[in-house]
Amino acid sequence: MSEHGYKTGRLNLPFVGIATFGKNPYVEDWDHIDADVAIMGAPFDFGTQYRPGARFGPRSIRDASTLFSFGHGGAYDYEDDITYLPSGEVKIVDLGDADIVHTNTTTSHANIEYGVRKILKAGALPVILGGDHSINIPCINAFDEDCDVNGPIHIVQIDAHLDFVDERHGVRNGHGNPMRRAAEKEYVSGLSQLGIRNVSSTAREGYEDARAMGSDILSVRQIRKLGVEAVLSRIPKGMRYYVTIDIDGFDPSIAPGTGTPSHGGFYYYEVLELISRLTNQGTIVGIDLVEVAPDYDHTGTTAILAAQILMNFIGRVMHARKGGEK
Question: How crowded is the C-beta side of 117, counted as CA atoms within 13 Å?
């Protein structure tokens, strides 16, 4: 034992050190990304129509993720009897944040798109921490060259809101527009929009347009009635999936820290089971999680939920990529 009482190095508790995502290494040089998974923050919330604050989402999610950073050689799930993210087998890095220029949506989105392109060029899985849901627009824009080589993507959205507004008072790239912008892409084969409920920010015409442009829309109540197997059967198998998770897809009883909470949402295991099973019927090629606004949740529960769902999702994606199946 050393003079400081350490047996085998530092204990490195969650509240110690620099709060990168999961306390994984920080990589500043985006031209030299060597990783299986690359985390990037997109702290942009100028697209909000109600309460701002999601610009602080990436920082809060990173801080919360340290709770899941204990060095136990991976994350053992006793229900699955699998150790996810085993040490030395999956390399995760944190690239920090895309640069955001206040009030300038065009430049800020371009900087986010630039970062996602760098991650894809490096062959890593992009995991983007929002920010409001408009950050999905530059994320999907960045996939054009990748899809030219590897084929189209199917978008799976977990959300309370359809986000299919075309244009409102000249705004085409706010947080009510991203799924419409995605559906317009030739390399987006379709959308599965899950959890949509109650009074939506999208009018009836938007729902009609979404279905006409290839969307399958299910509410939380419809999903509970159908069951996971039936829902998964509606999502095309063998596809490359981009998964976008709006934290308001969860019920505000467990995720109050968001700008547009909507009661009647998902609970943790409902979403985890859906996305976990999704990894076994196709390939996850991109993930974003958006709309965490920590100032509306002083307990930190929402950020912890975001970090926990991402950690578990990444673990299952990597397990599936290495030939495992739950």
Answer: 11
* Per-residue pLDDT reduced to its tens digit, 97-154: 999 999 999 999 999 999 999 999 999 999 999 999 999 999 999 999 999 999 999 9
Q: What is the DSSP string of 140-166?
A: HHTTHHHHHHH--EEEEEE-SS-----
The answer to whether residue 226 scores a pLDDT higher than 80 is yes
- Closest CA relative to residue 43, chosen from 54, 35, 32: 54
Please, what are the domains in the chain? 21-321 (3.40.800.10)
**Residues 222, 97: Cα–Cα separation, whole Å:** 37
* Type of residue at 83: T
In this model, does residue 286 exceed pLDDT 50?
yes
Can you tell me the distance from the alpha carbon of 90 to that of 84, in angstroms, rounded to the nearest whole number? 9
SS3 98: coil
Please give the C-alpha separations between residue 121 and each of 36, 81, 91, in angstroms, as whole numbers: 12, 34, 16
Give just the sign of the alpha carbon dihedral 103, 106, 111, 112.
Answer: positive
In sequence order, the β-bridge partners of residue 244 are 157, 288
pTM: 0.95
Q: In what order do the strands lie in the sheet with 37-42?
A: 92-97, 37-42, 125-130, 283-290, 240-246, 153-158, 188-194, 215-218
Burial of 322 (0-12, 13-18, 19+ CB in 10 A): exposed
- Say if CB 107 and CB 138 are below 8 A apart: no
pLDDT in tens, 173-191: 999 999 999 999 999 999 9
Q: DSSP of 25-88, one letter per residue? A: PB---TT----SEEEEEE---TT-SS---GGGHHHHHHHHHGGG---SSSEEETTTTEEES-TT
Choose among 324, 224, 322, 238: nearest CA to 274. Answer: 224
Low-confidence winner among 74-88, 225-239, 278-292, 295-309 (lowest mean pLDDT):
74-88
